Automatic annotation (TrEMBL):
Name by which UniProt lists this protein: Decarboxylating 6-phosphogluconate dehydrogenase
Originating species: Nocardioides panacihumi
Keyword Acetylation: no
Encoding gene, per UniProt annotation: gnd
UniProt entry keywords in alphabetical sequence: Gluconate utilization, Oxidoreductase
Signal peptide: none
Residue runs in coiled coils: none
Name of one Pfam family that matches: NAD_binding_2
Entry similarity comment: Belongs to the 6-phosphogluconate dehydrogenase family.
InterPro entries: 6-PGluconate_DH-like_C_sf, 6DGDH_YqeC, 6PGD_dom2, 6PGDH_C, 6PGDH_NADP-bd, NAD(P)-bd_dom_sf, Pgluconate_DH
The keyword Transferase is assigned to this record: no
Domain 6-phosphogluconate dehydrogenase C-terminal: 166-298
Length: 300
């Protein structure tokens, strides 16, 4: 298929490559001209129309909030009835209803898609959670199938017909991720502190086979610990990108008890007031899966 891709950063750039490797034509746009295939959004849309006679499909991978909103507003003026916009960023699910309604005024379809896979998605594929009308999603299905992990039926799910269902699922996914990382980090801090235990990195490595706590996050933590056993080079500071807060707020709105995820979010807030030992491990894992920046002890 022919598809436009807006935002060619760590995720978007790799997605463009994976789609092209699968035989699809991708016209990308990024404000960084060194990365971009087009000079503007308008130029991107013109190129897509020149090479295809079906609906024009544009996938947006820019930061949530105003950058996404401004991009969709501009695309609304450029696209026609029957075309489709996919928001694959980490938008708040409540924004999707507004974007879908706005585009719908002109007959333009909208699909929201939570994307997980970080900087490793190019090689491993991306877990995709999409929401919106199934008839609209069919327009982008070849791209979804190319982006999902290979050799498995899992990794691609229609979360609901309502706009926002995909981003809501991705939000909960990230909330769970917060709690998982916090548990690993607290366990690492305790093992690292006591005198009775030695070879902490290999203890974590041993858990990767045959135990109920094995996971990709554990793999990433082992890699970081083998490179810097006590994580001395990393400051105990971890940011949050929004989804944890939104998950806790949704739990409050729906009266769902969420003590573990809430505590893991608040722990990150503590790390911004004072250096937190366990947060070194969380910073290391975030860097491992998403390329999120860490603050070194020398910088601190």
């Amino acid at each position: 298929m022919h598809i436009g891709l807006v935002g060619l950063g760590k995720m978007g750039g790799n997605m463009r490559t994976r789609l092209r490797n699968a035989g699809h034509t991708v016209i990308g746009y990024d404000r960084n001209k060194d990365l971009s295939d087009s000079s503007s959004l308008a130029d991107m849309v013109e190129q897509l129309r020149a090479i295809g006679d079906g609906p024009t499909v544009v996938w947006v991978m820019v930061p949530a909030g105003e950058p996404t909103h401004a991009t969709i507003v501009e695309l609304k003026e450029l696209l026609d009835a029957g075309d489709l916009v996919v928001d694959g960023g980490n938008s708040k699910y409540t924004d999707d209803a507004d974007n879908a309604a706005s585009l719908g005024e002109k007959g333009i379809g909208f699909v929201d898609c939570g994307v997980s896979g970080g900087v490793w998605g190019l090689e491993n594929g991306y877990a995709l959670m999409y929401g919106g009308k199934a008839t609209e999603a069919e327009k982008v299905m070849p791209a979804l199938l190319a982006l999902k992990p290979d050799h498995t039926e899992d990794g691609l799910v229609h979360c609901g017909e309502t706009a926002g269902a995909g981003h809501f699922a991705k939000m909960v996914h990230n909330g769970i991720e917060y709690a998982m990382m916090q548990a690993y980090a607290e366990g690492w801090e305790l093992l690292n502190k006591v005198d009775i235990v030695q070879n902490v990195p290999e203890i974590f490595a041993s858990w990767r086979t045959g135990t109920v706590v094995r996971s990709w996050l554990l793999d990433l933590l082992v890699d970081q610990l083998r490179a810097d056993e006590h994580l001395d080079k990393i400051k105990g500071y971890a940011d949050d990108s929004g989804e944890g807060r939104w998950t806790v707020q949704a739990a409050i709105d729906n009266a769902v008890p969420m003590p573990a995820i809430s505590a893991s979010l608040f722990a990150r807030f503590v790390s911004r007031q004072e250096d937190d030992v366990a947060m070194k491990a969380i910073a290391a894992m975030r860097n491992g899966f998403g390329g999120h920046a860490v603050i070194s002890e020398s910088e601190a």
